[in-house]
Specification:
Shape: elongated
Number of strands: 2
Low-confidence stretches: 4-9, 255-263
Number of domains: 2
Oligomer: single chain
Strand content: under 5%
Mean pLDDT: 87
Helix content: 55-70%
Strand order of the largest sheet: 1-2
């Protein structure tokens, strides 16, 4: 088990160091990641901890109290462990290591890969779809038929006034089915899930063997077991994005000084 709060006294012998490193169980970590991947879709739960971050803190703590001369033992254990984590995530998502990852980048790549594809999988996926729909709302609106635009429920008529917001909200299932049919490359997908910098770093070393978007993101929209939760959450986030935009526009509205309106 990983306990970052555990006090580590001075380590002055290699045998003591090896004993502590042995307690960072590869099998336990592998099982924990397997469990996290299995239950990564958590639309109504908080994010899971990033196990890579916890491990790095553990290694930093060990190195800070080790007074021996074989620091490479810690570095080798660290690099092997992170490489195993990357391989486990790659195997799950059908990805491959396409370039050797330098030692100085191994933690950063492992951390970002785990954060995006495991610990924050649900919230990043939902935010990605919601932001994509919101940012492309005008073109999506114009892709609807007149009949779809005119079809309004009593609820949306009462709550919303913007015709674009109403039309997209009412036709979210149709729109998301179309979005699910798109084909984003891994580079584009990671930029949408995180940012271009993270995407560039990961894609420098990791590549997809088949479409990451199609089989691990769009599939949550088309899969009947997850479809309802996906659409419900994305609709809610879309409304929140719209409301935030309206509030921002209201705040930026110019203030007319008294009497200016009569000039």
């Amino acid at each position: 088990m990983i306990n970052t709060n555990e006090a580590i006294v001075n380590i002055d012998t290699d045998s003591a160091l090896e004993s502590i490193l042995y307690n960072i169980s590869d099998d336990y970590i592998q099982a924990s990641i397997e469990e996290a991947l299995k239950y990564k879709f958590r639309p109504y739960a908080t994010r899971m901890p990033n196990i890579v971050y916890l491990l790095e803190n553990k290694f930093i703590s060990i190195k800070s109290v080790y007074t021996g001369s074989n620091q490479q033992i810690i570095d080798e254990k660290r690099e092997t462990l992170y490489t195993n984590i990357i391989n486990q995530i790659c195997n799950y998502y059908n990805l491959s290591i396409v370039n050797e990852i330098p030692t100085e980048h191994i933690y950063m790549v492992t951390y970002m890969l785990y954060q995006i594809l495991v610990s924050e999988f649900s919230e990043r996926m939902l935010a990605m779809f919601s932001n994509f729909v919101f940012n492309n709302r005008d073109s999506l609106y114009h892709s609807l038929s007149q009949a779809q635009i005119d079809d309004r429920s009593a609820y949306t008529k009462k709550v919303y006034t913007d015709p674009v917001q109403i039309a997209i909200y009412e036709n979210m299932t149709f729109i998301l089915d179309n979005v699910a049919s798109l084909d984003f490359s891994m580079e584009v997908l990671l930029a949408l899930l995180a940012d271009k910098n993270a995407s560039d770093i990961i894609c420098r070393y990791i590549g997809e063997n088949r479409s990451l978007y199609k089989y691990h993101y769009a599939s949550y929209i088309t899969n009947l077991a997850t479809r309802t939760d996906m659409i419900t959450n994305i609709k809610l986030q879309f409304v929140n994005l719209y409301q935030s935009r309206v509030a921002m526009l209201d705040q930026n509205e110019p203030i007319i000084n008294e009497g200016e309106g009569n000039k």
